[in-house]
């Protein structure tokens, strides 16, 4: 396929319209030709039908008639109509011939005479039939399509057979001695025979022409299309798809996909054409040959679309499952919502693996293929479950977004473990990595055995600037100090305003808003709120008038999401078209703010660096309030990710970024804006080798590499590629042996009796299958064991305490007086339970009184912190009002939201942990329901609606109150009616909600159907006829 081709076009083969007078053929009935009715004009013997089926006309799709806008190969009207007309004429002639035959029979002979050219003619002159048969000749039609060759051969055979029959019957005159009745029957038989001969050819022509227009039954469609000179591109595309059958030629036009996919891209995404680099990338030899690929482009370059096309090709053409790995839950949910409509239209499943969602192992589907969209942690668990069930080969493609996160601490280690397992266990699974530009991309290529494609394309030109005092400099690496003077700020500041805004942020933002959009990245969450409030103080009244009604709607939605409460900062800033965005907002508030900014209702967001790594919210101008994130100086990758948000494709012609500097940071900033990208290093050794320890445990548990002597697997890791830099003090094999000893000490693995291999203990299996941190597995086991001894069941506080995440304890700084007040509200049984886990009332009372007293054990302090978090969750489950709970405990609502989502995910991990340990069987049913409650934290009747991606609590209440009370209601809703019924719901949002509901409903129905099929399937090991010998 050519690099620039976006689709495969099928050439239409048809005849050109020519003058009826100038082009008469031997297929034309005699009465239609010049020269009279009785003179049969002979055409040359070597004339072929290919002269009639002639020129190549404009392109058409494969669903169009292959005969083009022509309806006849006879050049002047429909062939079928002509045949019907000729047949009717011949019937009339048969009646006339009948009278003639009676007269001849009465003369006791039938005259048969050869024509001058040796062809036999009957007195009835079957002009249509014989003229066709005589004119075809005996030469083979080498260039005809297969169906027409088949037809010609059948006609030749019929001609030969009839000539032999007629020759035998009429080689000599004979006397007829039949009676009058016999003569009548003979006449009737002869008439029928001639009529049947004509009809057989007529019917054959009809059938053949219809078969040519459709797919012939006994000639494969691929062969017919090739013989009909159909586009050469299809052949190239089909050769690249090694497993596509000969019947699937319609998968070719759009990069190996049906034209329907291109139509859906236009309909659902508004994408008509791909960028040149996207076409080039999709047509790379390594992509066509299904080799691994890493491609690197700047932010907003359109990387994701290429990955989605490759995913669709794998699902539809190769009929294989796919895994799409994204770094954040919000991105997973956005991707699931965006691809649900494609899944419904193209008949594949889109399954979410994020937070507490996801089934391990995934449902095994016989009919449909699945696209698993997963966070980094869930993707690792998914791959483990596929390896354990020997189903990894069903995974045809793994796509990793933000591949450079391999260098990001513990999460980078999980990505490396996941990809290393796929590489080692499946040679058929292709890996595609999307990445920012990296300094050591070759290391990643070696690790993944991948090709690399790099391009610096941006749909909108980016101009980078820095601001120092009141001067703007353009970033230019060619300059000696990287900065070139651009302009002076032209904005009059009063002395009071200069004190409040010394960095001239107001001047910079008012140059673009409200006509264009702007993002202001701030170093801290508190600074985001302060900057948004400061800007509003100095904006003119005209900002209040801009899209005033829509901003009022946004405030009302924010109030509904908070059950009547609105953030005071947002209440003040939203009327001016401003808002802040950071983790202190609830997920519903963030979603509303993002949608309002995308639609232009909000023109400015003050935000932290996490927005740059999350959902795509581009702007005309991006301002970096400081070159710091908290107290850490920006990394080159962070800087590029932030400034990459500048420039909105299809809206702006240019994007601008401005980094605000203080004089003391000038030298560091020069390095920041002009230095090459950082290198990416393996993180398996991060945090005292926690990653490689976890990897060794799972490898032994999955029986991937149980031998002490084998090192094949580790040779396929990024750590092995970079061992000279990362394992300078001790070799990689020494590190491995050290971690094996550690796992033995923790009683997670043991050595087999023959001392040749390692095997996991029950606790080890529970640890890796539950994705529990190795530092917490033994603590979790002890807590669950103690819980069984006195599990409190008349309240969920005990269970909530057991699933409160250990890694949230360090973020907890309780107000001990509030803690004590809430503790005293517990029942006697709940306080007794608290004392049983090591947090008695006396401990909380002393802390509330400010008594430091004796140094308490570290364990008691941690248990006390964990109980405080459990009280927050306990209150949240009872009230389901996040705002009131956050206010009661004096915590930010964002922190409470994070605690809730982390707890639901950890509850899911603990559930899988207990499933592997028989002694914890009571927890299975209890934790299943608790996971569900923590995941949504709403009233029970809203949970079915909240399961739909994109439906938050306030929207679920709207839907429920409007009569959409179940998943089935929502899946069968009309988007147009839904958008009219639900206040402030746009048609596009309604369509996405309905599509997501249908996808979820299909997923649940398919899972049930698979269970039914499995139950009804006859076991393959069913015993045969029993032996005649019976046991006594």
Automatic annotation (TrEMBL):
One of its GO terms (molecular function) is 3'-5' DNA helicase activity. Its EC number is 5.6.2.4. It is found in: Chromosome; Nucleus. GO terms for biological process: DNA repair. Keywords: ATP-binding, Chromosome, DNA damage, DNA repair, DNA-binding, Helicase, Hydrolase, Isomerase, Nucleotide-binding, Nucleus. It catalyses: ATP + H2O = ADP + phosphate + H(+); Couples ATP hydrolysis with the unwinding of duplex DNA by translocating in the 3'-5' direction. Residues 504-700 form the Helicase C-terminal domain. Residues 177-191 have a biased composition (Basic and acidic residues). Residues 9-19 have a biased composition (Basic residues). One of its GO terms (cellular component) is nucleus. Residues 1-38, 158-201 are annotated as: Disordered. It comes from the Eukaryota. Its main location: nucleus. InterPro entries: DEAD/DEAH_box_helicase_dom, Hel308_SKI2-like, Helicase_ATP-bd, Helicase_C-like, HTH_61, P-loop_NTPase, POLQ-like_helical. Pfam families: DEAD (PF00270), Helicase_C (PF00271), HTH_61 (PF20470), POLQ_helical (PF21099). Residues 284-456 form the Helicase ATP-binding domain. Signal peptide: none annotated. Belongs to the helicase family. SKI2 subfamily. Single-stranded 3'-5' DNA helicase that plays a key role in homology-driven double-strand break (DSB) repair. Involved in different DSB repair mechanisms that are guided by annealing of extensive stretches of complementary bases at break ends, such as microhomology-mediated end-joining (MMEJ), single-strand annealing (SSA) or synthesis-dependent strand annealing (SDSA). Possesses both DNA unwinding and annealing activities. Forms a complex with RAD51, stimulating HELQ DNA helicase activity and ability to unwing DNA. Efficiently unwinds substrates containing 3' overhangs or a D-loop. This is Helicase POLQ-like. It comes from Lates calcarifer (Barramundi). The lineage of its organism: Eukaryota, Metazoa, Chordata, Craniata, Vertebrata. The gene is HELQ.
